[in-house]
Amino acid sequence: MISFLGLCIENFIKTIKYIINGNAKFSSILARAAMISYDSLPIALSIVFIAAVVIALQVSKQFLMSGAEAYVGGFLAVALVREIAPGFAALAISARAGTAISAEIANMQVTSQVDAIKTLKIDPVGYYFAPRIIAGAFTVPMVVILAELFGVLGGMIISYFTIGLHPNRYMSSVWIWLNTRDIYISIFKGFIFGIIIPLICATQGYETRGGAKNVGISTTQAAIKSTVFLLMADLIVTMLFYINIF
Fold first, then answer.
1. Is the dihedral of CA 229, 234, 240, 246 positive or negative?
2. In this predicted model, what pLDDT tens digit does every residue of 8-54 receive, in sequence order?
3. Are the CB atoms for 212 and 183 separated by under 8 Å?
4. Which DSSP helix (H) or strand (E) runs through 12?
5. I need a surface site. Which of 6, 35, 132, 156 has the fewest CB within 10 A?
6. pTM summary value
7. What letter would DSSP give residue 66?
């Protein structure tokens, strides 16, 4: 993991240089944005929506028994915005788009398409990584915001049908409990996750050697490593903004 992290940092530096030199094409970025976030939108929203519904089912009756049913919305909104929506959406995108990135680049590597790019005196790291990283950094936060909205709405619907909590009381507690700072931090998490997913998965694909069997192994490794690094990044950002450990 340590050596792989070093490769990721090295590739990220090369990508930044490639972007600074103005080599990244907007059309390529737009295509990667559609592949990374737009195509992953249904699964990401579905996962967060279901997670919010399950949590609302678990806590609504307990809140009702203690006379605090009006705070179900606030509790759920804070949990969603701070942790559930950014984390689950990123994991969904990683599983859907991250593995596709790894498989695509790994296939290019084993079929010598990367070598063909090198013969044209084009930096393959910048060429393959830059559009994906830019697309992820700018579009994953949008998915996170939509996931938060869907999660809050899902909690509102289930709270109404399970304990009869009126939507106005639900949304009032959401606005009381939820802080604008939490939303900004969730967007920042989405930005970081949007960089990590294509960087990790593209690096894994780029380091693939061998044949078709190795492409499959590399794709599996990309899913595992991206999950681990996403959780580590989530922990660091949470400690940075909420625990003030640094």
1. negative
2. 898 899 889 888 888 888 888 888 888 888 888 999 999 999 999 99
3. no
4. helix 2-20
5. 6
6. 0.89
7. T
